[in-house]
Amino acid sequence: MTKITIAIDGFSSTGKSTVARQLANALEYIYVDSGAMYRAVTLYAIHNELFYEEDPGLERLVAHLPEIHLGFVFDPRLGYSEIHLNGENVEKEIRSMEVSERVSQVAVVREIREKLVELQRSMGKDKGIVMDGRDIGTVVFPDAELKIFITASPDVRAKRRYKELLGRGEQVVFEQVLKNIRERDYIDSHREFSPLKKAEDAVEIDNGEMSPEQQFEKVLHLAKETIEQSL
Ligand code: DC
Q1: Is there a contact between 41 and 87 (Cβ–Cβ < 8 Å)?
Q2: Residue whose CA is closest, atom 8 of ligand 1?
Q3: pTM, full prediction
Q4: Which CATH fold topology does 5-229 show?
């Protein structure tokens, strides 16, 4: 069966990762959450105290890049891969509010993006991959056979994220979550390198009014159609 590359981009907390993972499972493709990679680099910077007000360009973090090793390790019990930072599973830690508040600052740095994009391309060199993020259809895999761009209003997304954080036992205030989402939207879509934007040939899906099942059916249908056309 022909294997294709599927790029799923969109704003934060649109549920991209969930649908991307479901799609990869259904197609027996590799799934890569590229946001987790930016989050893991952010976690490294927090652990190593590399955020300084007088270093907005994060030059100290850039100097540490050769020491940052990222990988996805498949967990057969879960049925999907989790991210490891220098050999340690950090999947849970990278989802904290502290990391969310710092990650956009890390994702604007050109050297960090270059390192991660290179790694992402090497993961997708044999196709058969679903990768989600912000610049997958525009920069990482501009030749992807299927590109999907997912949107929903900031309010809808903040409600989802708030529930998720509460479910994980984090003490959060809804307004703080909404503010973080709006700020990340702004930074992600206005940064100089690889800003978040819909690729011209991407299919846009607004999932504000869709159930997760409806969304999954839609992307699966698109993927099967694209695979058939690529035969
Ligand atoms: O998808 P996420 O919310 O876990 O992503 C975390 C941050 O990483 C997000 O604010 C933007 C950045 N990111 C990026 O710049 N490029 C990507 N391909 C993926 C994520």
Answers
A1: no
A2: 35
A3: 0.93
A4: Rossmann fold (3.40.50)
| Residues with C-beta less than 6 Å from any ligand 1 atom | 12, 34-35, 38-39, 103-104, 107, 133-136, 184, 188
The span from the CA of 134 to the CA of 47, in Å, is 25
- HSE-CB at 34 with a 13 A cutoff on CA atoms is 32
Q: Whose CA is nearest to atom 10 of ligand 1?
A: 104
Helices (H), the chain: 16-27, 34-47, 59-64, 97-107, 110-123, 154-167, 174-190, 212-229
Residue with tokens 């990768």: 131
Count of all residues that appear for the chain in the document: 231
pLDDT digit string (tens) for 37-96?
A: 999 999 999 999 999 888 888 999 999 999 999 999 999 898 889 999 999 999 999 998
Tell me which residue of 42, 5, 1 sits closest to 202, measured CA to CA.
5
- Give 23's Cβ-side CA count (13 Å radius): 34
The rounded Å distance from CA 203 to ligand 1 centre is 20
| Torsion angle defined by CA atoms of residues 59, 13, 188 and 221, in that order, rounded to the nearest 10 degrees | 120
Please say whether the beta carbons of 145 and 4 come within 8 A. Answer: yes
Rounded alpha-carbon distances, angstroms, from residue 209 to 21, 152, 157, 189:
20, 8, 12, 23
Q: Where are the domains of the chain?
A: 5-229
